Each structure stands twice: as structure tokens, then as C-alpha cells.
């Protein structure tokens, strides 16, 4: 049986599934329930500086978008960092870590961008027995208005500066949590690395308004007639998160920097995809907030079973395996020609492939053949775009197949050799030899 | 043959609460949550097979998408645009042989989207919550049209004509409008006086006057109408009930199913309806199913449907057969009536049936017989067109019904016909609605040409 234990920055956990810093990790009660359920670790909900705790709104804190059957696809929140007393949090962290020594205990931190503030909080956290700290440079709402959270994460120089302080005042591994609310995630990641960060974690939530109440004309969640942008998370953000993870994993300057992946991870497969893109652990929040902690059982079994099936004995054996295959568009093989193929036995004749292609693409799928309702690909028109595959409600009914010989669409022979845009005759900047 | 058991036909076999339960809505309506969950299952197919399967061509994917997008009233309007009796059709259509049979999820999973239930949800919401009729009348044309028969065909035609700005007078022989919706549909399919509610909803468009108790051939003739109105639509249904053609048919207790159902539908108190302890129904269509199921639900102990062909020969769908069977009705096949057995008083004591077999498409009796003891027999072997009220009118007939073209126009100038009295398709409410609609459009085109 596969060994799914994780060693991230020297922090051991029985599995790579950590709960992200968020409401599920705000207090001992929740965290211990999570450990009982099997979670490998937690990032304790962000602590602020000593003194009167922050306050939260007393109206609704969350908004959501739903898919069919009200499946929660995206969640948005305007909750701030922990609103519990620092002393209570620290005491509970100590106790919980003592009781659960085999689980990863990371403490998330956010204090003002002043050296003494970081020094003070780190002195307290260093004594808790925690395994590491995560710097919350990500929250896009509320705290950012006070110069913290994403307000720091959006300025690479600040990231580097604070990271340096943390390395100076703590011996604990430092994980810098990045905000996606930037234009190019590689810059903050590079800054974190330059500051001495042991790892980055990403993504934090995305600035968002999830819905507008059309009776009151106010964003939701609505607090007394007003709404504020909140942080967006859940399955809907996974593609954005994975791209950012991949960008850091393959960037020459940050290559090899450990990554804890976050963003819409809901199943073992999501986790495996993040790990394949280079992550050493993954952090989960929305899925737990939607279904409770028990989902980790599916994640543990699923990952383990898949690894057994594939013959991977440890997570390290497939970690980062997809990174070399993340490429730039210009290097994609333009001689790789595919056509859609519709399996008539599994086709249920809904016609969505036809209308999608007919209305919005290349008029490459029939609706009637010999007077019968039938959906077949017209190879002469098919550009291999994959839209039909994506809109088909039956998994596996439509597939893309590579063809060789002459492309019926262009009437041109297909060159069996790799060739990309860098040498394409239509490219005014074309080089003579294909770059790889 | 003298019966040894006393004939037992009586009213009040059940407690009031049992009648209420037995005749409550057979498919309780979906609530908003159930409708949302079900609407999410629709794939919004291209050139949707469900829409093609609907005789009135309701844009099913669109109305379901409207429900999913929290616009149930818009959904209802989409339905009513094609079928103003969409509420009744949602209750009585054999969806399992129409839209739901065609649903791609029937192909994929054997579980079609519950189109009928969703249609009922949307139409119920609009009829319950809308402050006004969903359609506006066009400016008055000054044209006057007579519609004979206030059943589904006539009402559909009247509504469409009124919408186009014509003034419509509907002449109805019975006391109430609604036709089979009011008098023929099984009670548990149309509860809470829905037929009358729907009738009022249709009339709310304005421009339609109903005159009840006016019978064609008795109170007026077709020629009276053609002289007075710009156009006439005949939606007069099938007035005759087919006879068994066997000895003893007139015995006390041998009744026409449609008459009994009409009485049941009009009964203020179901406990006043006499029903036999042992009931035999002859027939294999929807009426046979409806009378058998309702007889059982009125407290009959044994109800047997005897049908002369096999199961797949029955006009009633497999689903409807199941409804009867799960209500406790026994369905027997390959039996045709030979004679009604009478007791000393000449009343029904049972029925003698002859076994049948089919060879090369021809059905014949085997000569072997069996007798089922019965206190009551219901004849449900079909209805036929009664042409007497139209005697001398000059209307062409087609296999015993009124002949029309595709536009439902008869051979007579300015006379159209539709519904069960013509041969346009299956004898279904939804087909009648379509006939009325087609005829109305044809009348409108003719009068405004």
C-alpha cells in the first residue's frame, strides 16, 4: 500500500491533506474534530497582534454561487482573521499540538508591517510547539484596508521585508501565503524566496462580488443594505490556483521552492493534480466547510488507491511530474492534428455538441444523417477544438483522436515531426530552428 | 343462472377519510425545491426530442430552463403560448408515451426529466400568483365565431381566436364547460375542481361567451350558426359509447364507463356512489383503466379488467396499467365478452368470456369460455362519433368522423372541426388542444385575408 505521508520542510504529517487557515481552524474544538477525522495537519486561523481582537460583522459573512442541484461551486467571505483573544488561541495551539504530536500544526500570522509587531508575535508563537508559520499576505478584504493581508502581498518589497524579519526572529519554517490578486504571481513568489521563505502557499482568496440582491440593489452578503467585496474560493477557483502554482513551479528563479497548494481542492484527484504540479502538501477549506471533515477519508483512500494503481510508493514519486509538461503556447506542436470522435453507442442524442459547434464554432457536427437524428463529426470542418467534448453530458462519449496522413480540413499532408510557432512560416519572428 | 351470492352493489363502502385519500392528487405537485432540483436535470437539448414529441410543440427545454432560472411564470407563459390547457395536459397527458419517452435522459438512464410535473409546477405558479391573464387580446376585429363544444378543442380554439381579437361564442350541451376535463378525466388526476379553474383562466382573456345547455341538433343546427357567424368550429367529441353486442347487455348493473365516470366527477359526495363488490371492466384503453382504478378506490373488493388481446395490444400505456394494478386491479388478457350472466331479477350476476387467440393478425375466439362472477360490469370498449346532430348539414365524413384538411377546415365554407370528432391523431386532450389551435389560426387567416 502506498505511503501517503508527507514531509514538507521537515514537517511530518500522516497525509498531505491540511486544513487551510480559515474558520475550520479557528479553535481547538474544530481542529481536534479535524484530527479525529484524519486530517494530516492544520494551518491555525490567522492570529493578529496582542490586544483587543478584531471584530467581525454580525450580519452574513458568506456568499456563494451554485451549480446544478445547488452544488456549491464558489464561496465568498468577508470574515476577518481570528476574532478570539490571542492568549486563548496560543494556549489552545499548545494543548492541541501536545495531544496530536503527529499532525502538522502551522500558525498563520498577520500583524502590521512593522518589525516590532512581527518580533512580538513570533516570540509568542515560537514557544507553542507549532511546526511552522504561514504569513497571511493574502486576505483581500477588511485587513487589506488596514495595510495588511493582500496589501502586503501585492508589494513584492514588503513580502521580502517581512519574510526576512520572520526568518530573523523565528527558527520555525516560514511559509509565505500569496494572494492571487496580482498580475503575475512570479514576482511575489520571487520576493518571498529572496526574503528567505522556506515555502510559499497559494492561492489565498480572490477579490469578488458573488451576487447582487436585485430587490435591494446591494452586493451579497448584504449587511444592512451594503456589501463589500469578499474573498472567493471553492471549486471554481481551482484552475486559477493551479496555473499560479505551475507558474512558480516552472519559473527559473523559484523552481524547487516548496509549495503548499490551495484553491478549490475537494477530492483526492484535485489534490493529486496540485501535487503533480509540484506541491508538497495541499490545503483544503471550502470542501470541508461544505461537507464537513469526513471528506478527508475519501481523499486519503482515493490518493492511496490511485498511487497503488499507478505504482507510486510515495508522494515524492509523482510530485512535480506535470511541471515539465507545462509549456508556453509557442512551443506546442502545431503538427499534432486531432479530430473529435463521437461514440454512437454512448451518445444520448441531446445534440449539444451539434449546436455548440454550429452556433459558436466550426459547423463540424451533423444533426441529421440520412433523415435520422444523428450527430457525427465532419472531419473536413473539425479543427479539433474539444468544445464538443466539454459540453457533452456523457463522460467519454466524445473523444479527441490524433490523425495522421492528410488532414481532411486543410487537404494538406500532416508532417509527422514536431514543429511549433517559433519556426512557423506565418510567424514574422520565426527562427530557423525550432526551439524547445 | 341463479346466483348463490346476493348481488352486492352499494354506496358508502368506505370511511370519508378513505375516499379523501383514495381520490387525492395521484401525483402531488412538486414544491419549489423539488422543481428546482428536477429542472437542473434537463440538458437543454438541441432540437429537443421532447418538444418534437409534444403534439402542441411546447418548447420544453426553454420552459424548464426558465424554471431553473427562477422564472416559473415565464415558464408558464412559454407553455401557454403553445397550449393554453397546459395545466390540464400536465395532469392528464400520457407523458410516458410522449415527451418523457423521448427525453434523452430516458435513453441515458431510464429516468426522464419529469416534464409533466415541471409543467404542472410552472402553470400552477402562474395560475395561482399572476394578477392578470398572461396574454393580451389584439384589437377587436369585429368578427364573430361560434365554437360548438366547450371541451379542450373548443376552448383552445376559442382562446386563440379571442387572442386574435375575434368575438367568440361557445355553445355547450352540458351544464358546465370543460368537456372531458370536467366529465371524463379520472378524479385523482384533476383535483380541487381544476377543470373549472382552468376554464375560468381561459375565459379571463376576454371576448369569449359561454352558453351552456345548448345542444347541437336539438337547440340549434349547424346551418343556424353558419348563417349568423363569420366562422364555426365544431369540437363536439364522441357522443356514442360502443356496445358489447352480447346477450344481456341491457341487464341492470351493466353500465357505460364514461357515464359512470361523469357521475363520479360531478358527485359532491363520493360515498353516495353505488359500486359493486365484484366489478368487471371490459376494454383495454384509458377509460378501462380509469373506471377500474376508480371502482377499486370506491371500495370495490375485486376489480377485473378483461381485454381481448395481449398486454402490448392495450391502448393504455404500461404506466397506466401499473397504476391500475398497484391500486389492486387485476388485468386479464385474451378474453372477449360472450354474454352477460343475469340473476333471477335480470340484473348482472357475472360475465361469460371467451378465450381468444391471434393468428396472422386476426383475432378469433377459441370456443373455450370462462365466467367471472360480478355485481357490476363496465363497458369501456371505446366511443364513436354521433353524426345525428349534423344530419343534412352536408359535412363530409372520414371513417365515421368529420373529415378535415391539415388546417382542420371541413368541406363546408367557414366550418372547421377538431378534437376527438376528427381523425387528427390519438384521442388525447393535448391533440384536441392542438386541433383547436390550428383551426383558430386557419380561421383567423381566412377572416383577415
Automatic annotation (TrEMBL), chain A:
E.C. designation(s): 1.3.1.1
Domain 4Fe-4S ferredoxin-type: 338-367, 374-403
Presence of keyword NAD: no
Catalytic activity: 5,6-dihydrothymine + NAD(+) = thymine + NADH + H(+); 5,6-dihydrouracil + NAD(+) = uracil + NADH + H(+)
Gene Ontology molecular functions: dihydropyrimidine dehydrogenase (NAD+) activity
PROSITE patterns per record: 4FE4S_FER_1, 4FE4S_FER_2
Pfam family, any one: Fer4_21
UniProt entry keywords in alphabetical sequence: Iron, Iron-sulfur, Metal-binding, Oxidoreductase
Function: Involved in pyrimidine base degradation. Catalyzes physiologically the reduction of uracil to 5,6-dihydrouracil (DHU) by using NADH as a specific cosubstrate. It also catalyzes the reverse reaction and the reduction of thymine to 5,6-dihydrothymine (DHT).
Self-association and partners: Heterotetramer of 2 PreA and 2 PreT subunits.
Family the UniProt entry places it in: Belongs to the dihydropyrimidine dehydrogenase family.
Name of the protein this chain belongs to: dihydrouracil dehydrogenase (NAD(+))
UniProt gene name: preA
Automatic annotation (TrEMBL), chain B:
Every FAD/NAD(P)-binding domain range: 144-436
Domain Dihydroprymidine dehydrogenase: 21-128
Keywords, alphabetical: Oxidoreductase
E.C. number: 1.3.1.1
Source taxon at top rank: Bacteria
Reaction(s) the record says it catalyses: 5,6-dihydrothymine + NAD(+) = thymine + NADH + H(+); 5,6-dihydrouracil + NAD(+) = uracil + NADH + H(+)
Uppermost EC category: oxidoreductase
SUPFAM superfamilies: alpha-helical ferredoxin (SSF46548), Nucleotide-binding domain (SSF51971)
InterPro entries (UniProt xref): DPD_II (IPR028261), FAD/NAD-bd_sf (IPR036188), FAD/NAD-binding_dom (IPR023753), Helical_ferredxn (IPR009051)
The protein's role, per its UniProt record: Involved in pyrimidine base degradation. Catalyzes physiologically the reduction of uracil to 5,6-dihydrouracil (DHU) by using NADH as a specific cosubstrate. It also catalyzes the reverse reaction and the reduction of thymine to 5,6-dihydrothymine (DHT).
Assembly: Heterotetramer of 2 PreA and 2 PreT subunits.
PANTHER family registered for this protein in UniProt: DIHYDROPYRIMIDINE DEHYDROGENASE [NADP(+)] (PTHR43073)
Entry protein name: dihydrouracil dehydrogenase (NAD(+))
Organism: Hoeflea poritis
Amino acid at each position: 500500500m502506498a505511503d501517503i505521508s508527507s514531509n514538507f520542510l521537515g514537517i511530518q504529517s500522516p497525509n498531505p491533506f491540511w486544513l487551510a487557515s480559515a474558520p475550520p481552524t479557528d479553535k481547538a474544538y474544530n481542529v481536534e474534530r479535524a484530527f479525529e477525522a484524519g486530517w494530516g495537519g492544520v494551518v491555525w486561523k490567522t492570529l493578529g497582534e496582542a490586544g483587543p481582537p478584531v471584530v467581525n460583522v454580525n450580519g452574513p459573512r458568506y456568499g456563494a454561487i451554485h451549480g446544478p442541484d445547488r452544488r456549491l461551486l464558489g464561496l465568498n467571505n468577508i470574515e476577518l482573521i481570528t476574532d478570539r483573544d490571542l492568549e486563548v488561541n496560543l494556549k489552545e495551539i499548545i494543548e492541541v499540538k501536545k495531544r496530536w504530536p503527529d499532525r502538522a500544526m502551522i500558525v498563520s500570522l498577520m500583524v502590521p508591517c512593522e518589525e516590532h509587531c512581527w518580533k512580538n508575535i513570533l516570540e509568542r508563537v515560537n514557544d507553542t510547539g507549532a511546526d511552522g508559520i504561514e504569513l497571511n499576505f493574502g486576505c483581500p478584504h477588511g485587513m487589506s484596508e488596514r495595510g495588511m493581508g493582500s496589501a502586503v502581498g501585492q508589494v513584492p518589497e514588503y513580502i521580502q521585508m517581512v519574510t526576512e524579519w520572520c526568518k530573523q526572529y523565528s527558527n520555525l519554517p516560514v511559509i509565505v501565503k500569496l494572494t492571487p490578486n496580482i498580475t503575475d504571481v512570479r514576482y511575489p513568489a520571487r520576493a518571498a524566496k529572496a526574503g528567505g521563505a522556506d515555502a510559499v502557499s497559494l492561492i489565498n482568496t480572490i477579490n469578488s462580488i458573488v451576487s447582487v440582491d436585485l430587490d435591494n440593489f446591494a452586493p451579497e452578503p448584504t449587511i444592512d443594505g451594503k456589501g463589500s467585496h469578499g474573498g472567493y474560493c471553492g471549486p471554481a477557483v481551482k484552475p486559477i490556483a493551479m496555473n499560479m502554482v505551475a507558474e512558480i513551479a516552472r519559473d527559473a528563479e523559484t523552481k524547487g521552492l516548496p509549495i503548499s497548494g490551495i484553491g478549490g481542492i475537494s477530492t483526492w484527484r484535485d489534490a493529486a493534480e496540485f501535487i503533480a504540479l509540484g506541491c508538497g502538501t495541499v490545503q483544503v477549506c471550502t470542501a470541508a466547510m461544505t461537507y464537513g471533515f469526513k471528506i478527508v477519508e475519501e481523499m486519503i483512500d482515493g490518493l492511496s488507491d490511485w498511487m497503488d494503481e499507478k505504482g507510486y510508493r510515495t508522494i515524492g514519486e509523482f510530485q512535480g511530474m506535470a511541471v515539465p509538461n507545462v509549456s508556453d503556447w509557442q512551443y506546442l506542436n502545431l503538427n499534432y492534428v486531432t479530430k473529435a470522435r463521437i461514440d454512437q453507442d454512448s451518445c444520448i442524442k441531446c445534440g449539444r455538441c451539434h449546436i455548440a459547434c454550429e452556433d459558436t464554432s466550426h459547423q463540424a457536427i451533423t444533426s441529421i444523417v440520412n433523415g435520422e437524428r444523428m450527430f457525427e463529426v465532419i472531419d473536413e470542418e473539425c479543427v479539433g477544438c474539444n468544445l464538443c467534448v466539454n459540453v457533452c453530458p456523457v463522460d467519454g462519449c466524445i473523444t479527441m483522436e490524433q490523425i495522421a496522413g492528410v488532414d481532411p480540413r486543410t487537404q494538406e499532408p500532416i508532417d509527422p515531426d514536431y514543429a511549433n510557432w517559433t519556426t512557423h512560416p506565418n510567424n514574422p519572428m520565426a527562427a530557423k530552428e525550432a526551439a524547445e | 343462472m341463479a346466483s348463490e351470492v346476493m348481488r352486492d352493489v352499494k354506496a358508502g363502502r368506505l370511511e370519508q377519510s378513505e375516499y379523501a385519500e383514495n381520490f387525492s392528487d395521484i401525483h402531488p405537485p412538486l414544491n419549489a425545491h423539488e422543481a428546482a432540483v428536477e429542472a437542473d436535470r434537463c440538458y437543454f437539448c438541441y432540437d429537443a426530442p421532447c418538444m418534437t414529441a409534444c403534439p402542441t410543440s411546447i418548447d420544453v427545454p426553454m420552459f424548464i430552463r426558465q424554471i431553473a432560472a427562477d422564472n416559473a411564470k415565464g415558464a408558464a407563459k412559454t407553455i401557454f403560448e403553445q397550449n393554453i390547457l397546459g395545466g390540464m395536459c400536465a395532469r392528464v397527458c400520457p407523458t410516458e408515451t410522449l415527451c418523457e419517452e423521448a427525453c434523452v435522459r430516458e435513453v441515458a438512464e431510464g429516468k426522464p426529466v419529469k416534464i409533466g410535473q415541471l409543467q404542472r409546477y410552472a402553470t400552477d405558479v402562474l395560475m395561482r400568483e399572476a394578477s392578470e391573464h398572461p396574454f393580451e387580446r389584439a384589437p377587436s376585429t369585429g368578427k364573430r365565431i361560434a365554437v360548438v363544444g366547450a371541451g379542450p378543442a373548443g376552448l383552445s380554439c376559442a382562446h386563440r381566436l379571442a387572442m386574435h381579437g375575434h368575438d367568440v361564442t361557445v355553445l355547450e350541451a352540458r351544464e358546465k364547460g370543460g368537456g372531458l376535463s370536467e366529465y371524463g378525466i379520472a378524479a385523482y388526476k384533476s383535483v380541487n375542481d381544476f377543470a373549472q379553474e382552468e376554464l375560468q383562466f381561459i375565459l379571463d382573456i376576454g371576448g369569449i361567451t359561454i352558453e351552456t345547455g345548448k345542444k347541437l341538433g336539438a337547440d340549434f343546427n349547424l346551418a343556424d350558426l353558419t348563417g349568423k357567424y363569420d366562422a364555426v368550429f365544431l369540437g363536439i367529441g364522441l357522443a356514442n359509447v360502443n356496445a358489447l353486442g352480447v346477450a344481456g347487455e341491457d341487464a341492470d348493473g351493466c353500465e357505460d364507463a364514461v357515464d359512470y365516470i361523469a357521475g363520479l366527477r360531478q358527485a359532491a359526495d363520493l360515498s353516495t356512489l353505488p359500486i359493486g363488490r365484484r366489478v368487471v371492466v371490459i376494454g383495454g384503453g384509458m377509460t378501462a383503466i380509469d373506471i377500474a382504478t376508480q371502482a377499486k378506490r370506491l371500495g370495490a373488493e375485486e376489480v377485473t379488467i378483461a381485454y381481448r388481446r395481449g398486454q402490448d395490444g392495450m391502448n393504455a400505456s404500461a404506466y397506466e396499467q401499473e397504476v391500475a394494478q398497484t391500486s389492486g386491479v387485476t388485468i386479464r388478457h385474451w378474453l372477449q365478452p360472450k354474454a352477460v350472466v343475469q340473476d333471477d331479477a335480470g340484473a348482472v350476476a357475472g360475465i361469460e368470456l371467451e378465450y381468444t387467440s391471434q393468428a396472422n393478425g386476426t383475432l378469433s375466439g377459441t370456443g373455450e369460455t370462462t365466467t367471472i362472477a360480478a355485481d357490476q360490469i363496465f363497458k369501456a370498449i371505446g366511443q364513436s362519433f354521433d353524426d345525428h346532430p349534423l344530419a343534412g348539414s352536408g359535412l363530409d365524413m372520414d371513417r365515421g368522423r368529420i373529415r378535415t384538411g391539415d388546417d382542420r377546415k371541413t368541406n363546408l365554407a367557414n366550418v372547421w372541426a377538431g378534437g376527438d370528432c376528427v381523425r387528427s391523431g390519438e384521442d388525447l386532450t393535448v391533440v384536441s388542444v392542438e386541433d383547436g389551435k390550428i383551426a383558430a389560426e386557419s380561421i383567423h387567416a381566412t377572416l383577415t385575408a
